[in-house]
UniProtKB/TrEMBL annotation:
Domain Acyltransferase, first and last residues per copy: 22-178
Keywords: Acyltransferase, Membrane, Transferase, Transmembrane, Transmembrane helix
Coiled-coil region: none
Family matches, as InterPro entries: Acyl_transf_3_dom
Transmembrane segments: 56-80, 86-107, 128-149, 161-180
Gene Ontology MF annotations: acyltransferase activity
Aminoacyl-tRNA synthetase among keywords: no
Name of the protein this chain belongs to: Acyltransferase family protein
Keyword Acetylation part of the UniProt annotation: no
Length: 190
């Protein structure tokens, strides 16, 4: 794909040098559009007001089919997140659909509304604000307090699980202002 970027941008490249390149590139954005369109279609599907159980089952089935298609296509065109390959898009969208189906059934299928200020409901009702806050504060993950929680947990649970400790702490810190906004009815919408 670097040849295409050089043809479009000329000598400008993200990584300098005679064989310089842009890790994402122009053609690399096409799969992200595909993933966004899949998400839009899923959102439209959920808004149709079909029975929750049937929607969740169909969503899980469609997600499973996307995962299978992505894994099969991955044998020809590898699943690489950094390049956002089409096989990665299929697998990641499929996994997201299966997880969403589970949450749709568990949360929306209860027959009662989630309370304002609860963890999942607050993030769901104010997803844009949560995303913006995450982008503004993600530098905190390299702060000493977050690194300390990892170093403390690593001997107890191992490095893989210990890596989740600062992330969980970060999510809880993000939840605090998002829950406060939710309780006051303040929502960022497009």
């Amino acid at each position: 794909m670097s040849w295409f970027d050089r043809a479009v941008f000329g000598s400008w490249r993200y990584v300098a040098g005679p064989k310089g390149y842009d890790p994402e590139g122009v053609l690399g954005t096409l799969p992200t559009f595909a993933e966004a369109l899949i998400g839009t279609l899923v959102g439209d599907w959920l808004r149709r007001g079909q029975p929750i159980r049937r929607t969740a089952i169909r969503l899980a089935l469609a997600g499973t089919l996307l995962i299978a298609a992505g894994v099969a296509w991955g044998l020809v065109f590898p699943i690489i997140k950094d390049l956002w390959t089409s096989s990665f898009v299929l697998v990641s969208a499929g996994v997201a659909m299966v997880v969403l189906a589970g949450f749709h059934l568990a949360c929306d299928g209860r027959g009662e509304k989630m309370r304002r200020g609860d963890l999942l409901g607050s993030f769901g009702r104010n997803a844009i604000a949560a995303y913006a806050l995450h982008e503004l504060t993600s530098f905190l993950l390299s702060a000493d307090v977050f690194q300390w929680t990892y170093r403390w947990a690593r001997p107890v649970v191992g490095p893989e699980l210990a890596a989740l400790v600062p992330v969980i702490l970060f999510i809880l810190l993000l939840w605090w202002p998002i829950a406060a906004m939710d309780r006051r009815g303040w929502y960022l919408k497009t």
